[in-house]
Design brief:
173 residues; alpha+beta; five-stranded antiparallel sheet; 6 helices; 20% strand
């Protein structure tokens, strides 16, 4: 099955197009925003040269910073787009990097704006185990780096992962 793309802002409030099935997904950030996020991370993590997966969507260049899986893609994308910081590692990580000490309401508004500018790519799988295998393969190959992933991420250095964990743990939860 081919992957599908949708701009996150087009999902907000209406997730009917996403089935309640297992699968894997990627988050694609506008290039300028990815550069900003990586610049902030480089200040606190060990700076390293990253090989990032890029794609042109429309006339704009996007960068994949995060890959994930779920047993229920419908619920997962809803949580990533509208859920509280504590229920989404993705949202929590973005908050920790971009607005670590902002009050929750302010942080929500800002992170929602960021997420709305991104594309979400996904593919359904028959089982969660299939999705896990795809994610594991993606995070163990050394072709591309996924700098916002922590768990089982072999594409970036352990120093980077420690730095990202430290950033997330210092952030308001």
């Amino acid at each position: 099955m081919a992957t599908e793309f949708i701009k996150a802002c087009n999902l907000r409030g209406s997730f009917k197009t996403i089935r309640e099935c297992p699968g894997w997904y990627r988050w694609w950030f506008p290039e300028h925003l990815a550069d900003d996020i990586l610049s902030l991370l480089n200040e606190q993590c060990s700076a390293e040269i990253l090989t990032l997966r890029t794609q042109t969507i429309g006339d704009d260049k996007y960068v994949c910073l995060y890959v994930g899986i779920s047993k229920n893609l419908h619920d997962r994308v809803r949580i990533h787009i509208e859920g509280p910081f504590g229920s989404s590692t993705f949202r929590r990580t973005l908050r920790a990097i971009l607005v670590p000490n902002s009050p929750e309401h302010q942080a929500n508004v800002y992170i929602n704006k960021i997420i709305d500018s991104c594309y979400w790519e996904w593919e359904y799988t028959d089982t969660k185990e299939q999705a896990e295998n795809i994610e594991c393969e993606e995070l163990s190959q050394l072709q591309f780096d996924y700098p916002l992933n922590i768990k089982d991420n072999e594409t970036i250095s352990s120093n980077w992962i420690r730095g990202l964990k430290k950033i997330r743990n210092k952030s308001v939860k």
